[in-house]
Design brief:
Layout (H helix, E strand, L loop, with lengths): L2 H14 L3 H21 L9 E5 L5 H9 L3 E6 L2 H4 L10 E4 L12 E7 L8 H11 E11 L9 H4 L7 E6 L2
Parallel strand pairs: 1-2, 1-4, 2-3, 4-5, 5-6
Length: about 170
């Protein structure tokens, strides 16, 4: 590790204390997500992108993405106690409590939306995906990851017959 990363990790260990082991797993997950996005899209880590992460829990993944990119990231979760646990992260990312089925953003706001291991927890996932699409810019990217290969997903063409002007990256992580 570079010296500055090492110093950062020492601070992170102190700040995240009881959650530090979990934080370390989120570093690995953030690297996987970033690599998949860079490898399979035209997006770059040095681009000034507007990114929404839905279901971000503590914001650990998004914090790491913000450290490695120039992306302006909003992370969110429906549970206030998760998204507000580490207010220090607000220096790096914007954090909000919100519901994926009713997003408080204007149409065509985000270049990239990260929906990582969330879809399997939402009863009305079709409504959530339609709402994500609404706030996604034309030619934007929607990253959906799920641990459940057998989760019934509606193909994007069924949901969005009128405007197939975005790309969905589907990832299955175990």
């Amino acid at each position: 590790l570079r010296d500055e990363e090492n110093k950062s990790m020492i601070n992170e260990k102190k700040v995240f204390n009881k959650d530090y082991s979990y934080f370390l797993t989120r570093i690995k997950k953030a690297r996987t997500i970033l690599n998949e996005i860079i490898q399979h899209t035209s997006l770059k880590n040095d681009s000034n992108l507007k990114v929404l992460a839905v279901g971000g829990e503590f914001g650990f993944i998004e914090y790491n993405l913000a450290k490695w990119t120039k992306w302006r990231i909003i992370t969110s979760d429906i549970e206030k106690k998760l998204i507000t646990k580490y207010p220090l992260l607000k220096k790096y990312i914007k954090m909000q409590v919100l519901n994926a089925t009713k997003l408080p953003f204007k149409d065509n706001t985000f270049d990239l939306i990260i929906f990582n291991h969330v879809i399997e927890h939402i009863t009305n996932y079709e409504k959530a995906v339609k709402e994500l699409y609404r706030v996604l810019k034309k030619n934007g990217y929607l990253y959906i990851a799920t641990p459940n290969l057998y989760r019934k997903l509606v193909h994007p063409k069924v949901l969005f017959e009128k405007k197939p002007d975005f790309v969905v990256l589907l990832a299955w992580h175990y």
